[in-house]
Amino acid sequence: MYLLAKPKLTSSCKKNWQSMEECEYLIDLAKPHMKKSKVVDSKTGKSEDSRVRTSSGTFLPRGRDKIIKRIEKRIADFTFIPVEHGEGLQVLHYEVGQKYEPHYDYFKDEVNTRNGGQRIATVLMYLSDVEEGGETVFPSAKGNISAVPWWNELSECGKGGLSVRPKMGDALLFWSMKPDATLDLSSLHG
């Protein structure tokens, strides 16, 4: 595990966090339920279609089975946030050329914060490998990123900020809120 702190963004990557079997299980479980992904309207708190997000996805119910429970417990241990304070796992699929423009995971509307509270952290679990692209990019977390050993392996998009390349089984934790409960603007990602 290593910690990245490029100005103010605090994140942690774990290699081989999930087994190949767990990754394949989540994909197989989600596949029949995948629908076009939506975004949350910041005024109404309702989900709506948008060109900024072109993936497909689905939510898996919390505590659905023993494998999901095991993964949720692992997330709780990783984040120090109790399972009951989390959301159901969301499985997303991106085809070549699909994207989610840079965005924040925290809610800007009162509807969602009243409904379940603020999203304070995100754990991205990479369920498959990709040949090219697919990085999670944090454009506001700039620094001397060209010094990283994998710089030449990044796509042009991936060179736009602190980037994490997807690798099956790896996980990335980043915080949307600072310890003082203010929103962390460096958590902008896409």
Automatic annotation (TrEMBL):
One of its GO terms (cellular component) is endoplasmic reticulum membrane. Residues 38-52 have a biased composition (Basic and acidic residues). Belongs to the P4HA family. Signal peptide: none annotated. Its main location: endoplasmic reticulum. GO terms for molecular function: iron ion binding; L-ascorbic acid binding; procollagen-proline 4-dioxygenase activity. Residues 85-190 form the Fe2OG dioxygenase domain. It is found in: Endoplasmic reticulum membrane. It is a single-pass type II membrane protein. Keywords: Dioxygenase, Endoplasmic reticulum, Glycoprotein, Iron, Membrane, Metal-binding, Oxidoreductase, Signal-anchor, Transmembrane, Transmembrane helix. This is procollagen-proline 4-dioxygenase. The keyword DNA-binding does not apply. InterPro entries: Oxoglu/Fe-dep_dioxygenase_dom, P4HA-like, Pro_4_hyd_alph, Pro_4_hyd_alph_FE2OG_OXY. Residues 37-57 are annotated as: Disordered. Pfam families: 2OG-FeII_Oxy_3. It catalyses: L-prolyl-[collagen] + 2-oxoglutarate + O2 = trans-4-hydroxy-L-prolyl-[collagen] + succinate + CO2. Its EC number is 1.14.11.2.
